Amino acid sequence: MSSYHNPVMLAECIDGLNIDPEGTYVDVTFGGGGHSLAIMEKLKGGKLIAFDQDEDAKKEAEKIQHRSFTFCQANFRYMKQYLKLQGASKVNGILADLGISSHQIDEASRGFSTRFDGPLDMRMDRKAKATAAKILNSYTEEQLHKIFGMYGELKNAKTAAKAVVTNRSKKPLATTLDLKTALQSVAPRGKENKYFAQVFQALRIEVNAEMQALEDFLHQSGEVMEKGGRLVVMSYHSLEDRLVKNYINTGKMFGEVEKDFFGNKVKPFEAVNRKPIEASVEEIEQNSRARSAKLRVAEKI
Ligand SMILES: C[S@@+](CC[C@H](N)C(=O)[O-])C[C@H]1O[C@@H](n2cnc3c(N)ncnc32)[C@H](O)[C@@H]1O
Description:
By secondary structure, the chain is α/β, with parallel strands linked by helices. It has 13 helices and seven strands.
């Protein structure tokens, strides 16, 4: 087990990929490489192309020196382009283990955690322009209301947005403690930790344009996958899981399902498991992060 990140549902993900030792595989969320290493162990003649937009993950990837392994420090929303550059326009399996790693959460300087005081940063890619501080200090009250409601599922999103705007007019918010102090009076008594976690989740999703990146990635996964290839996606909150489920079941993230002349749904994948796979009780006991994980596996048709 790496101290960088303890991979969630490792065996289930590898089973889901149904690896052909000579095939080409993609891990779009390398992190500490736990899943990537397990994929590589199954390859014989095949190759693995991994992505992560975080500089720290790149340093972890540099520890792997193997002919069958390539790392791209890039956002997975550009997967198709990068695969083409690698001469892999078609692949046999793709894994996405969404969200952030334990390493990112545990580094106070990244600003992802409600547990430590740190700068309001929350960028996975530290070259990106928008930080959480920028969003909190420049978005209108309506924009903040929208992201707190949509991405944090806060019941009092409007009140929270107003509290941020009132507080920032006295002094711009700079640290995670500033944000928690600004929201202290509007957080439900006794449930502050859960409330702050929802606020931080909302900001993180906005800072990293996570929903947009996931949409782009899912579309491209259908385009680059060989027939019979597997898409394996692990999500940690309902918004992501809903998008993945819709895409697998209908070929669309939202709205109307497209049908062909015979009334069949036009979609690139067929679900392998109808219900999402969840971690075992034993795994959750050892790794609390596994509690919210939902794994979906689909096969290209
Ligand atoms: C949950 S961790 C993956 C952990 C990994 N499976 C392991 O076993 O170590 C998610 C990783 O994906 C990266 N990531 C999230 N969204 C991304 C995106 N849109 N493009 C590239 N990397 C992304 C994060 O930087 C983070 O390192």
